[in-house]
Amino acid sequence: MQKIFSGKSATPKKVLLLGAGFVVKPTLTLLSEKGVEITVACRTLENAQKLCKNVKGTKAISLDVENEEALDAEVGKVDVAISLIPYTFHPLVIKSAVRKKVDVVTTSYTSPAMVELEKDINEAGITVMNEIGLDPGIDHLYAVKTIDEVHRAGGKIKSFLSYCGGLPAPEASANPLGYKFSWSARGMLLALGNTARFLKDGKTEEVSGHDLMSVAKPYSTGYTGFAFVAYPNRDSTPFSKKYSIPEASTIIRGTLRYAGFPEMIRCVVDLGFLSQDSQDFLKPSPKPLSWKDATAKILNATSSSEHDLTWAISSKHSFTNTEEKSRIIAGLRWIGLFSSEPIIPRSTPLDTLCATLEKKMAYEDGERDLVFLQHKFEIEHADGKHETRTSTLCEYGDPKGYSAMAKLVGIPCGVAVMQVLGGKMEKGLLAPYTPEICNPLRDELREKYGIDMIEQTVA
Q1: Catalytic residues, which ones?
Q2: Per-chain mean pLDDT for the chain
Q3: CB 243 within 8 A of CB 146
Q4: Burial of 51 by CB count in 10 Å (0-12 exposed, 13-18 middle, 19+ buried)?
Q5: Is the peptide bond before 432 cis (omega within 30 degrees of 0)?
Q6: pLDDT recorded at residue 10
Q7: Which of 95, 269, 405, 451 is the most exposed place for a label (fewest CB within 10 A)?
Q8: According to the model, what pLDDT value does residue 3 have?
Q9: Which residues sit opposite 206 in a β-bridge?
């Protein structure tokens, strides 16, 4: 077992790991196997204790990161603080790390709130390494690799597309959305309401959250066994600068889903089920409404009969054809929106729907997830020749071990922590956008953990 300290008098490195999500365990186990002492901190002690069970060199504590004094006390005991809690809390952790001069690692995007702390980070002389999971993370490592190779050879990146999907494996995808939840359904559905910005043929384009599913299109990855659709997400335009590809006229980063997903979501949006407005009839009650009665109220239908509900749906949503209408109505029936089953009332249409989706669309024992990540580069070489190159990661989860998503977020995070502990990272507010940062991380992930993206010339 490789240790990061040597000699009888040497002191083991120590980290504080904040969080209890499903990606924590791979990070925790990797660090434990390297001889690091880890304090796992959660708001609920029981969650931390579960993570630490049978993992050597770990200690569980209860910690509220909004308690500045308590947070400082724990951060001050370690060499690195790993923040795997919601991104809105990262600035609190970074401020504590600045006060205690302790390094930080997160898997989240570098937020404006983090950038505001950059001066303090530099003055404290610490490393704050972000964006080192899957997406963001592994995607950066291989984007930077190809871009750097092309530029060094005198070529140009004319177009860059990058799509990633965390999905159930095909054999576990038999539901109307072709999707299952290993995390908050609310988070996934709310993300569908975010505006997308991207560069296409030299022009900046913007798509509102309401229209996002309308621009989803079938996407050919070259792997013909998968029927994917793709749509843009977030703001892709800053990557012209971040990836140093000002010559690219098209830059789109987005999401992959199975075919049929956009049409279902578009209908759900049109019907008002993603509304965050509180409704009296959806508030917690000893005798909650049936789903059909709740659906009738949400749709303002004349009754809760399936005939009248279907008519109300048709008046609010335009179907492309009869086949699509039949499929989507069948999907809504599968979810239970026409049933006599009681709702799980959570005040708003969105949260009440999420409660049912999380129950009906959870991973069952023995089911695998799938992560599919692909970059597609249009390259103009120095001699004027053109090439289309892809870089692809296709990973299935292990029902007896880690999910694909947990592995591909948690392992890169753990590797980055080890590099920070070993003094191999520069100081400052960092993310993997340079060969100097990316190359060592990518090499270790490939050589020691078998995490790799396969490159192919396809045209």
Answers
A1: 135
A2: 95
A3: no
A4: buried
A5: no
A6: 67
A7: 95
A8: 45
A9: 197
pLDDT at position 9 is: 44
Which residues sit opposite 389 in a β-bridge?
377, 457
Buried b (16+ CB within 10 A) or exposed e, 183-203: eebbebbeebeeebbbbeeee
**Can you give the pLDDT at residue 51?**
94
Contact 452, 419 (CB under 8 A): no
**Residue in this structure with the two tokens 């949006």, named with its chain if needed:** 269
Q: Is 40 helix (H, G, I), strand (E, B) or coil?
A: strand
Contact 294, 282 (CB under 8 A): yes
Torsion angle, alpha carbons of 171, 176, 181, 184, to 10: 170
For residue 256, give the amino acid letter.
L
Over residues 8-66, the pLDDT tens digits come to 446 899 999 999 888 899 999 999 999 999 999 999 999 999 999 999 999 999 999 99
Q: How far apart are CA 66 and CA 86, in angstroms?
A: 13
Token pair 């590809």 in the structure block, residue = 245
Nearest of 297, 296, 313 to residue 305 by alpha carbon: 296
Give the residue ranges of the chain where pLDDT is below 70. Answer: 1-10
Using CA atoms, how far apart are residues 120 and 96, in angstroms rounded to an integer? 11
Cis ω before 136 (30° cut-off from 0) = yes
pTM attached to this predicted model: 0.93
The pLDDT of residue 68 is 97
Helices (H), 378-434: 404-421
